[in-house]
Specification:
Blueprint: E1 14-25, E2 28-40, E3 45-49, H1 56-64, E4 72-79, E5 82-83, H2 89-92, E6 100-103, H3 107-110, H4 117-126, H5 133-146, H6 152-155, H7 165-177, E7 183-187, H8 195-212, E8 215-220, H9 223-229, E9 232-237, E10 240-246, H10 247-252, H11 257-264, H12 304-308, E11 314-315, E12 322-323, H13 328-333, H14 366-379
Parallel strand pairs: 3-8, 3-9, 6-7, 7-8
Antiparallel strand pairs: 1-2, 1-4, 4-5, 9-10, 10-12, 11-12
Helix pairs in contact: 4-5, 5-7, 7-8
Length: 380
């Protein structure tokens, strides 16, 4: 059993231990997920973050039993002490949506455009309950009301194209919760939504958590979503977990250079006029992973040991904060670790224009710009 699961208790509703997923291809085996472990308890919110291709969605699809037959899955996935790895698609139907539900990224691909919203929700409920159409319809309307859809009785008769993007996302959440699942997996639920709607969707999910006691796995690349919503966070890179712990500890005291780089690449309104600080390079091929630490080709703290031996995921400063780094103690000793990824070519843009003013410096205001333009007009 892996280090992360040494603290497993009997109240865990979902326990993933040493999960690995490999896809065979003509070019070689794609190691999409490697040795991922976590536990989830009722009402707990776990955030999983990382770049595209880091294994976030594949690991969740493995939990749901939605991977193709060609996928080779090893390790353990236990839902309320019932092993899910090795179950057939048909055997998973009794657990999927009823015990573990998933909110997919694009609501338009999750909803059928030719059926009304109410009909689709009612069918999702009838699939797991032997009830009449009238009872199922009432449950559909109740689910719409629970996620904040105004006039749910009227909106239940409408089609997906008659809903806005935010409303469609609420419908997908209603679809996930209509059977009262114990676990909700949300895969990028706020992608392509504006900031105001994002906040409403996240607030809705937390309210659902409070009212149903469901545990939530939030998969996202948006660190802002993670900071404001989750209890614990796992950072994934190249198919494996590189840092895990309480969200405040991981964000305030990261113990893996990759996490430092992610946090440093966030836009900062106080740094107007400067470029973002990126992590140079690109993630490795999941077919030909580098020897040693998978982040070593891009890491500013790399040493020979990093290139030859992959570090284990072990406790760092505290027993519940884990890092996959040989040099986490050195990283912890740095006064300004965020400067690790600063580069010479990253600096102030001299001709930055402030939105709506034409000002080229932070100190300029509209009046100053108008005066300068007036003077330039006379001189010409």
């Amino acid at each position: 059993m892996t280090v992360l699961n040494e603290r497993v208790t009997t109240d865990a509703v979902l326990a993933v231990d040493d999960l690995s997923v490999t896809f065979p291809t003509d070019d070689g085996n794609v190691r999409a997920v490697r040795n991922v472990s976590y536990t989830l308890r009722p009402r707990e919110v776990l955030g999983i973050v990382g770049e595209s291709g880091s294994g976030k969605s594949v690991s969740s699809m493995a939990v749901m039993g939605l991977l193709p037959r060609s996928a080779k899955i090893t390790g353990s996935i236990k839902f309320r002490d019932r092993e899910l790895v090795g179950r057939s698609y048909k055997q998973m139907q009794g657990i999927r949506n009823n015990g573990i539900a998933m909110i997919f990224q694009d609501p338009m691909t999750s909803l059928n455009p030719v059926f009304t919203i109410g009909w689709q929700l009612a069918e999702a409920y009838k699939a797991h309950h032997d009830v009449s159409k009238k009872v199922a319809w009432a449950k559909a309307v109740e689910a719409l009301e629970l996620v904040g859809i105004p006039e749910p009785q009227k909106r239940a008769h409408q089609y997906p194209h008659e809903f806005s993007g935010g409303m469609r996302q609420r419908v997908v959440i209603a679809m996930a919760i209509i059977n009262d699942p114990d676990v909700i997996i949300a895969d990028e639920p706020t992608t392509a939504l504006d900031v105001t709607v994002q906040a409403q969707i996240l607030e809705t999910m937390l309210r659902i958590r409070d009212e149903t006691d469901a545990a939530i796995v939030m998969i996202t690349h948006d660190l802002g979503v993670v900071a404001g919503m989750v209890d614990r966070v796992q950072v994934m890179y190249a198919g494996t977990v590189v840092e895990a712990g309480p969200v405040d500890e991981v964000f305030d005291r990261p113990r893996m250079p990759y996490t430092v780089g992610l946090l440093g690449s966030l836009p900062d309104p106080t740094m107007l006029g400067k470029r973002l600080t990126p992590i140079l390079g690109a993630p490795p091929s999941l077919i030909n992973l580098p020897t040693g630490c998978s982040f070593s080709p891009r890491c500013p703290l790399v040493i020979d040991e990093c290139r030859s031996v992959e570090p284990p995921l072990t406790p760092t400063d505290s027993g519940n904060h884990f890092g996959r780094c040989h040099r986490w103690q050195h990283l912890a000793s740095l006064p300004n670790p965020e400067k690790l990824f600063e580069h010479e070519e990253i600096g102030t843009i001299d001709d930055t224009i402030l939105p709506g003013t034409g000002a080229t410096h932070v100190g300029d205001d509209v009046e100053a710009v108008e005066q300068r333009l007036h003077q330039e007009g006379h001189s010409s």
